[in-house]
Amino acid sequence: MRDPRAAPVLVVVLVTVVQSVAACANVTLPVVAPKIAQTLGIDASWVGLQVSLLFGMAVASATFAGGLSRRLGPARTAQFAALLCIVGMGLATLPDLGAMLAATLLCGAALGLINPGAAQVIVRFTPQRHRNLVFSIKQSGVPLGGVLVGLTAPAIAVAWGWQWSVLPAIAVALAVLLAMQWVHPLWDAQRERGAALFGTRSGGLGAVWREPALRWLAGAGFCFALIQRCVMTFLVSYLYLVAGY
After folding, report:
1. What is the pTM of this model?
2. How far apart are CA 135 and CA 63, in angstroms?
């Protein structure tokens, strides 16, 4: 009898939820930015700097995420990312710029660690003929995380204060911690304890730069992500502070 932890449907669901963890963590603060700005005595536009730092840290952590996933296993790496989100969101509740900076860096690091482990699991446990669909569903965890935060965080901020708006992100991260503990024995069975963190010369950024098709694809992805992030970062503040919603 096949191990249920290897079922393709379960794999798709879990990697999608893992993807939503980092999304929840990096969307929460922009969604309640006007309230945070009032507490800290700063302009809400500073959220642009916060998001820039978060994604800068995500880029840095992504450079060794593949090696870390091979060394720890995809389940343990997902747990580590979830733990970073929980600690980061906890720090974000402190009305202090230093704590907000630390929270931003931790959540950014978590965001960069998510994808390589998910790719390993998808390739290992799902049929090749459905691979494109599976990766697309997994990536839908980003907007799903945004929808969850968008539906809950503003209402929580208004009712109980913006510090409590981190609860949805923390709840999803805790769910991932528990789920990954269950699948860990199977998903991490092929981990390589001595794997190099930063890969080889033939992989990573070098491979993207050497292949023209990959360079164009990466550039296009960057532009789409930039537009998406600008809209998600400033839309709430604009509607609240300028449009009067």
Report:
1. 0.88
2. 20
